[in-house]
Amino acid sequence: MNPKTILIVEDEQFLLEITTTIIQLYGFKTMAAATAKEGLSIIASTQPDLIISDVMMGDIDGFQFVKTLKENPIYKHIPVILLTALADVVDKNKGIEAGAQAYITKPFNGKELVKIINQLLPD
Fold this sequence. Notes:
By secondary structure, the chain is an alpha/beta fold. Helices cover 44% and strands 19% of the residues. It has five helices and five strands, in the order βαβαβαβαβα.
């Protein structure tokens, strides 16, 4: 069985490395993007099985990133987890309304993140 591929879109290098390490420890293959535009470019060439994205990024915020993906029939099936410091209920609702399947606040628990990944990725 091939490992599932997860794209991580995170503009903070340290958090990108930590998230990547945790996910790889659980046997997933990862790809990384430092901006939403870079993430969209990667998705266009290599469709990941799941996407984890920050919300507060310099070029396109995570809400718009998810909305852009979900408006495209080629990519709308890809589950998205928003991983963000924005803990307000209004922000969480905005993320879910944009099309994210899960919304996790930072700091996050690695086991919780992997549990949600496993729930969103069928075997």
